[in-house]
Write a structure and sequence with these properties.
The chain is mainly α. 57% of the residues lie in helices and 3% in strands. The protein is built from eight helices and two strands. It starts with a helix and ends with a helix.
Amino acid sequence: MSETRRETLSAMLDNETDELELRRLLKTADDDAELKRVWERYSLAQSLLHESRVGRLSDDFHLEVARRLQAEPAPKRGSGVSATGRQFAGRFAIAATVALAVFVALQAGLDNEPAAPQIANEASAPATAPAAQIVEVDNAPVVPVDPEARQRLLEYIESMRFDPEEPPRMEHIQDSPLFHLVNDLQD
């Protein structure tokens, strides 16, 4: 008798086999006298270990076990949800939890961010202001601000007008390397 069959028999006596292994073992027990003897010895050893008083098993004990197994109704399936569906739902739940945690962390981080540095209004600046001002808010790095550059930026922003009737100008975009790269990919 093979070692595998002995292990299966031992596992069966310890209620650790599945139904397929049990049926296979019972099917081979009809023709294998050695299996019957080993089964009897293992059963006797198990009963002694568990201190139960079991007499000698009959020779057709395995037939009775097989008959009772056949008489039992087939096990019912659990819910109608497949294992794949449960696995997908579990992964989705984990992803949703991580997304929620990131969202909450980002919201908390945004609430605790220090305010952005404020640029002083030129109207309130004294007439004797130096060519570059230094603005410092909390522990923000010191950044020199050129009043002339600031004025040019404000004038440029104020000069921008968008007419919905007028098509957008594309000259400056068409010279962009990114524009060429994207159009080359589309062709």
